[in-house]
Amino acid sequence: MSDLSDEEVVVVGGGFGGLSAACYLADAGADVRLLEKNEQLGGRASRLEAEGFEFDMGPSWYLMPDVFERFFAYFGKEPSDFYELERLDPHYRVFFKDGDRLDVTGNNAEMRRKFEAYEPGAAEAFDDYLATSERHYETSMEKFVYEDRSRLRDWIDFDVLTAAPIGLQLLGSMQGHVEDYFEHPKLQQIMQYTLVFLGGSPKNTPALYNMMSHVDFNLGVYYPEGGIASVVDALVELGEGLGVTYETDAEVEEISRRKEGFLVETVHGETLHPDEVVVNADYAHAERELLPDHERQYDDDYWDDRTYAPSAFLMYMGVEGDVDPLAHHTLVLPTDWEPHFDDIFEEADWPDDPAYYLCVPSKTDDSVAPDGHSNLFVLVPVAPGLHDGNAIRETYREKILADIADNTGVDLRDRIVYEKQFAVSDFGERYNATEGTALGLAHTLRQTALLRPNNRSSAVDGFYFTGSFTTPGIGMPMCLISGQNTAERLISDYE
């Protein structure tokens, strides 16, 4: 990268995209100051500590280890310099609400046998599906993810033409793609559950994201000792070594272009005058609330017309005793999950028969709960923008706890010694999340690749965006890459 030794850059927001961009820019010589609204860094990957329990409030799956390795290698480091990883076995456990149960493991020979038991021919289909998934993953990562193609002209080159079959996968849905391989609805669900991490449904997510099955089955599911917060700590430590300055409790209330550089002002009255600004805050919030009208790229109609990824109803719970047979990662799925997706993307209602996720890190890490206790949270994807007042939260809490007991055999209700809820309005308040989305913009056909908002402002020179609204999209690995892409765009403009 170029020498930015004369440049002062302010990064607004300390999520994975902002932390990543700050490292790359500081490594290029810039004087980087990162301003974070909340009391800790990490964005949605916040840490909740209470009564001897430590919860990851947001991301809890460590996927795509190759992305983390590549990120740290750029700076001459490796993940093990900062945290230890444990590969989970099983990767996750599925409880179907008809009483069936399945462990998804990293042993693909075993998974072939399990698939075949559900449907004759499914073992061979599993092999074919994973081969396609691996090919799409490798091609997509090198030609579409690490190569920043956020402008139309970026798609008109030889690399894109040679990868044309991959690009055509954008034209179909995941539902149609999976149905080409498997008829059994449970096998379809297993191949599609990762869409929840992308903020989509089988009907509205491009078939290209079949590549996530390669991530799931071949690359493995890991747990960083101490939780995802340990990864945040690693990024911060790396940035400190590169010279990044961090400020927490420093919410930005105004950004505007000046004749020379920018004015960035916090709610506490601090004013900064950087040469460039990188925003890792919620993109729609930044454009609507932080910028003057003439410096916005998109009007209100644009943002009102976006499909936002789901929000979530979360309960962080400290529980007496163990919670067998729950695994570290557990999914509870109804026989037909289509009504739940309709409640998220079509009707915007609280799901009557929800699909949900349980995380029990104390299965792997003794440090996150007191002796004799379990640490777990339940996450129910819900529609963004839902009303989530106390009455509906209490009603839904009882519904979910009863559902867990009925479908996993684990009754938590008389053993909860600590509990905190977090839902739609909390995402809006804590993260300025538009409509309380838990993730950002969904990966629909109309919001994938160059159809996502720009990482470089088309209205203001020297103004950039990173994070889950931009390319390549949602999730910790994608946001790490987003930070790199945005930093490289800034540096190329500087040259």
Describe the structure in your own words.
With 495 residues, the chain is α/β, with parallel strands linked by helices. It is 35% helix and 19% strand. The chain contains 17 helices and 19 strands. It has a 7-stranded mixed β-sheet. A 5-stranded parallel β-sheet has the order 9-2-1-13-19, covered by helices on one side. The termini are close together.
Throw out a few tags for this protein:
495 residues; alpha/beta; seven-stranded mixed sheet
The quaternary state of the protein chains shown equals single chain
The percent range for helix content is 25-40%
Low-confidence stretches: 151-164
Number of strands: 19
Given the C-alpha coordinates, what overall shape results? globular
The tally of helices reads 17
Write the layout of secondary structure elements.
Layout: E1 8-12, H1 16-27, E2 31-35, E3 47-50, E4 53-56, H2 65-74, E5 85-87, E6 92-96, E7 101-104, H3 108-118, H4 122-145, H5 158-162, H6 164-168, H7 174-179, H8 185-192, H9 195-198, H10 212-219, E8 222-224, H11 228-242, E9 245-247, E10 252-257, E11 262-266, E12 271-272, E13 276-279, H12 283-290, H13 300-304, E14 311-320, E15 329-333, H14 338-345, E16 356-359, E17 373-382, H15 390-408, E18 416-422, H16 424-431, E19 463-465, H17 476-494
Parallel strand pairs: 1-2, 1-13, 2-9, 6-15, 13-19
Antiparallel strand pairs: 3-4, 5-8, 6-7, 10-11, 11-12, 14-17, 14-18, 15-16, 16-17
Helix pairs in contact: 1-11, 1-17, 2-17, 3-4, 4-10
